[in-house]
Amino acid sequence: MVCLATVLVPRSAVAFCDEWCTPTLVDDNCGPSQDALVPGQRVKLAIACQRECKRPSLPITTREPRPEDIPRELRQLDCRHPRPVTMRRTEVTCDQGKVYELTAPPPGRYAVMQELLLEVTGHEVCPHGPAEPSPAPKTRLSGWEEQRRRGERLLAEAEVSDWDRVKKDWSAEISNAGVVILTQQDGEPSAFVGGELRVGFRHTDRFDRGSGSGGKGFSITPSKNMRWCMPVLMCGMLGMIWAPPSSFMGNELGLDLVARLGRTYQAGDDALGWSVGLRPFFRVAADDRLRSQSLLGSVLPELGVEFASTEPSALYARWHLYPIEVLVHPSLALSWDGPIAGLVIPLDGSPVAPTMGTGISITGLIDPDD
């Protein structure tokens, strides 16, 4: 039941929300305060808290701060330990938010909720010694920008893919395969057995793992292993929800020129057959030696034309649903093409015939910079 419920819940119904609170230094008339602060001075801060939900798309809402939103200490930028502070709630509400009062601390520079910098004039004294070097308070980023940057940090820290180690942005591959393709034409089965040569270029990007919402709201963190669910939607909605972004298009993109040569066997007779076509390449290579098909790669067909010495020429379309490759050497990979489904369209007007097949290949990886 849990799996069924997960499949039936549309992805758009999952809310990714982010909450934050913003302090503003104001004067007695709710205007921005520009006065220099001195120790012991009464300081007014207007604090507003907001919530943003990205999926489904909802407007940003504003609420009053809760007790847990109010800081109990100020981080003194140049000193080792923070200063305790007491903020008193007032009955005043400005456009910038609910107003709180505090007494200016001893001289120094202070960060309030990582959003506001207070500078109190005078000779600064650090009772516990100076702080270690740290960046100044940063401007608040939206939850989605924080999520993007967090994903970039995780990606930079992650183990580099074995495929990334041996491939640059652009590279080439040459594959030699043995294939078997079965066809049912006019009630007569036939089999093509032969060899295949593929030559193609690849553009490789880093594998995008994705991340959760990064906020306090409900979040789903994609699983790298869920990429195995993506070809032909094997896991239904589960694959769509937990699959990392790179599983949809892939992080290795390219185009192959494919040529096949072999024998076609039918009803005890055999004939020479050959074909040529173009095969789109959309694969997923994560931080291991395996490379698998992306969702887009499983639905885009290989297109070409085939010939036989005793049969009319025909157009064909073949879908490579689930090829799997393993890197056995920095310059060599072995692969199983998985199930290959297709259609043959004879040019003499004969009925369209379905095909099924598979193949095993060895691939050489070529780096143009070498």
Helix content: 10-25%
- Give the uncertain stretches in residue-range form: 1-14, 212-219
What best-fitting shape do the alpha-carbon axes yield? elongated
- Tell me about the biggest sheet? 11 strands, antiparallel
**How many individual β-strands?**
20
Query: H/E series, N to C?
Result: HEEEEEEEEEHHEEHHEEEHEEEEEE
Q: What is Rg? A: 31 Å
CATH architecture of the largest domain: Beta Barrel
Please tally the helical runs, counting DSSP H or I stretches of 4 or more residues.
Answer: 6
Q: Report how far apart the termini are.
A: 54 Å
Query: What count of domains describes the coordinates?
Result: 2
Mean pLDDT: 78
Write the layout of secondary structure elements.
Elements: H1 2-8, E1 17-26, E2 42-53, E3 61-63, E4 73-76, E5 83-84, E6 88-94, E7 97-103, E8 108-112, E9 116-120, H2 143-157, H3 162-166, E10 170-185, E11 188-204, H4 236-242, H5 246-249, E12 252-266, E13 269-285, E14 290-293, H6 295-299, E15 302-308, E16 314-320, E17 324-329, E18 332-336, E19 340-346, E20 353-366
Antiparallel strand pairs: 1-2, 2-3, 2-7, 4-5, 4-8, 6-7, 8-9, 10-11, 10-20, 11-12, 12-13, 13-14, 13-15, 14-17, 15-16, 16-19, 17-18, 18-20, 19-20
Short descriptors:
370 residues, eleven-stranded antiparallel beta sheet, five-stranded antiparallel beta sheet, 20 strands, disordered N terminus
Task: Write a concise synopsis of the structure shown.
The chain has 370 residues and is mainly beta.
Structure description:
This protein is mostly beta strands and 370 residues long. The protein folds into two domains: 125 residues, no CATH class; 199 residues, Beta Barrel (Porin). The chain has six helices and 20 strands. Strands 10, 11, 12, 13, 14, 15, 16, 17, 18, 19 and 20 form an eleven-stranded antiparallel beta sheet that branches. The relative contact order is 0.13. The N terminus is likely disordered.
